[in-house]
Write a structure and sequence with these properties.
The structure holds 2 protein chains of 2 kinds.
Chain A: H1 3-23, H2 27-45, H3 48-57, H4 62-102, E1 105-106
Helix pairs in contact in A: 1-2, 3-4
Chain B: E1 8-14, H1 21-30, E2 34-39, H2 46-50, E3 56-59, H3 66-79, E4 84-87, H4 97-109, E5 113-117, H5 129-146, E6 158-161, H6 162-166, H7 177-187, E7 192-196, H8 203-207, H9 214-228
Classes of the chains: A mainly alpha, B alpha/beta.
Chain lengths: 117, 229
């Protein structure tokens, strides 16, 4: 095993373990994390297999294929995160709106009051 | 006109407009419209400056954007049994006399929504040429996004009936609320008309965000709106 493989494998295992602990997820998630981890470790140990798959798909080098996959995956992730952000913003808006509507006031008798900034 | 002006609710969304908002509101009150000020979490003295005026004042706890402020104002207006709802910019660029004209036209045409336009014959405005070009381009893009072609897609002055307002629900907090409103008009098959309105751009309102660069921001919001609604 060459040094980079040790670095990458320990990183993958650490991330997988950390995710599992943080998410305290269901069994299905745990299995998924384990599967991803196993696949990653496999490709780290036998990088030439990616080239075989790549050539079978018509791509020259394995690293290119990995790069394409990662690009797609990140794009998907951004969309996913963004739509989640929009949902959160909707909730946030609703809360602020409800709060402000409950506190609606008529300013005609606000004259002598020490107003807030 | 048979309508009592107090059943006409003018919604004025504002963010840090303390310098001019009182003038704007006083002009509206002179016509005895009901006024709802939605303070979108201003950090200036907006509330203090308005104290003593018979207006409904709502304050967002955090800055959400103009679209969100309009939606909040509309909800309060509907709760207060508004017959007509008007949106009106706080910075003093609109002419108060246009509201009456628009409501008349709305009744005449039996329309549901009426949009103010800076570009119809009869509208007076002191616009720069570069700004005009940008607004024309915005008009086309807006047509692609909303499905209805207006001569002026991003005008802050509009009037709608209670029934039309009940069918709208703005979820686009920022600038793409214009397109979203037009979308509601299209999908609910509401009848809409455009009406020439006067706009006066003061140095103040120019400084406040009518810079052309903002249209890029609007375009960005619009694209996100189309992808993620």
């Amino acid at each position: 095993m060459i040094p980079i493989q040790i670095v990458l494998i320990s990183a993958v295992v650490f991330i997988a373990f950390y995710m599992y602990l943080r998410l305290r997820s269901s069994l299905l998630d745990a299995i998924l994390i384990f599967l991803f981890c196993a696949v990653a470790v496999f490709f780290i140990l036998f990088p030439e297999t990616t080239t075989e798959i790549a050539q079978w798909l018509g791509v020259k080098r394995g690293i290119n294929l990995v790069f394409y996959c990662i690009t797609l995956f990140f794009f998907f992730l951004i969309l996913k995160l963004y739509s989640r952000m929009r949902r959160l913003e909707d909730k946030f808006t609703e809360m602020i709106r409800e709060n402000s509507l409950n506190k609606a006031e008529d300013l005609s008798d606000a004259k002598n009051e020490k107003t807030q900034a | 006109m048979p309508t009592d002006n107090r059943s006409i609710f003018v919604i004025v969304p504002g963010y840090n407009e303390a310098a001019v908002i009182r003038q704007t509101i006083e002009a509206l009150l002179e016509k005895s419209y009901s006024v709802i000020v939605v303070d979108d979490a201003s950090t200036d003295s907006t509330r203090k400056i308005l104290s003593g005026l018979p207006v409904s004042y709502i304050r967002h706890l955090a800055n959400l954007g103009q679209g969100a402020a309009i939606q909040t104002g509309m909800q309060l207006a509907l709760k207060k049994n508004a017959e007509y709802l008007v949106t009106f910019d706080a910075d003093g660029q609109h002419d108060v006399n246009d509201i009456e004209k628009m409501i008349k036209l709305l009744q005449q045409e039996k329309a549901d929504v009426i949009f103010g336009s800076r570009f119809l014959p009869g509208a007076a405005s002191n616009l720069h040429t570069s700004r005009k070009l940008v607004l024309k381009a915005a008009r086309l893009i807006n047509y692609l996004a909303s499905g209805i072609l207006l001569s002026d897609a991003n005008n802050g002055l509009r009037v709608m009936t209670r029934e039309a307002a009940l069918k709208m629900r703005i979820t686009e907090n920022r600038s793409s609320h214009n397109a979203q409103m037009q979308n509601f008009v299209k999908y609910n098959k509401l009848k809409y008309v455009e009406c020439p309105v006067n706009i006066s751009y003061s140095d103040y309102s120019r400084k406040k965000g009518l810079r052309n660069i903002n249209s890029i921001r609007i375009l960005y919001d619009l694209i996100l709106y189309k992808i993620f609604r």
